[in-house]
Design brief:
globular, about 170 residues
Length: about 170
């Protein structure tokens, strides 16, 4: 699977703010509650849409804008190299990661930001890298390396959802 395949699936099958079970995305809850990236990157790309109370710009737009550009759309997924916690969390959720892992990763970000008094502060997409080992620990909790491999090596979203749910 290449990024264009992933983006096509997302554009056709994925809701802007609610997962396949009809629940609000964990990533949206981060944004609405003042956690995660809140400046730079996709916030700058879509300044006219910024509304944290509505979790806009949403992660679907964030993802497709980034991966459908000419440089990335024909390449294999490389989501494990991302830094934005809400985009990583969203990718895991749309890929079928179970609630337990999603909730643990969400709680990890919330607790980390509360302990370090980062909530509501200006944070670019790579702010976790400023704290030794934090981004890596978050990525392991969310299983993004495994998810990336599953997506890259799969031929269908049915397979992706089944395999990721087993993690």
């Amino acid at each position: 699977m290449i990024n264009q395949d992933v983006c096509s699936y997302i554009q056709e099958k994925i809701n802007d703010h609610y997962n396949l079970k009809g629940n609000e995305y964990f990533a949206d809850m981060l944004v609405k509650n003042g956690y995660g990236q809140n400046c730079g990157g996709y916030f700058d790309d879509f300044k006219e849409l910024v509304n944290t109370e509505l979790a806009e710009p949403n992660q679907k737009l964030h993802f497709t804008n980034y991966y459908m550009n000419c440089k990335r759309k024909d390449k294999k997924p490389s989501y494990s190299s991302l830094h934005c916690p809400q985009l990583i969390l969203w990718i895991a959720e749309i890929s079928g990661l179970n609630y337990r892992h999603l909730n643990s990763a969400y709680d990890f970000i919330v607790t980390f930001e509360d302990v370090n008094k980062l909530k509501q502060n200006q944070k670019g997409g790579d702010y976790l890298k400023d704290y030794e080992g934090v981004e890596e620990e978050f990525k392991k909790l969310i299983k993004i390396y495994n998810i990336n491999t599953i997506i890259k090596n799969s031929n269908s979203w049915k397979d992706i959802l089944l395999e990721v749910n087993k993690l």
